[in-house]
Design brief:
mainly alpha; disordered C terminus
Amino acid sequence: MPRDATSTRARLLDESERLFATQGVHRTTTREITEAAAQRNVSAVTYHFGSRSGLLEAILRRRGDPLDERRGALIDEPLAAQPTRVLVAALVVPYATCLASASGRHYLRIVAQLTDRFALWGAEGDLSPPHLRHILAELERRITDRDVAQERVVASIMLLTTSMAERARAIEDDAPVAITERRFVSNLADMIVGIIEASAGRPLGVGHTPLPKAPRMRSSDRLALTRSGVAADAGLTKLLGPPR
């Protein structure tokens, strides 16, 4: 590919990545991308990537493939012999390295918008490279309640991607964050381990199953509660004055 074409392709990738992250994947127009990349021809995206979908795939692979190589380097086979937290760390730690650069943060914010693809993690694609699929498949096997295994894996993906995207947004906006990055990554890993390892609880009152009825309150208890509420209101009025 000629040097000029390579440079144009890189600018299209950089600008579309920025716009997809800040404006939204589905709200950004092809014209906005070409104008931001200083391309007069709107068909530049089609020329270099085949389609808008091809452009998005190139963005995801540019960052996602190296991340997947890092995942593979963090785990030893067989995966079945590894603790759950080690497997989860192989997902979280490489992903968190994206927080260190503007381009990486854009990537995190883009992935979080693609929730309709998360349930397809088991199929080969730009969002599901081989090491990621391998780790998620092992985590799914560890979920004892098979009826919700797929649901929990998808929930883990959503927690990972949305948490990272929100952290990326806060950094981009120079907004305060509650905890250090090291603590954030560790806590996120702990929460995902909890999703995977939590045992199934008793069914709650949804659908046709009514919630347990609350015990009936005795008249004497109801009267005492009412009197305490009146006393509390009177105390607040004395401290703050009458309502205005």
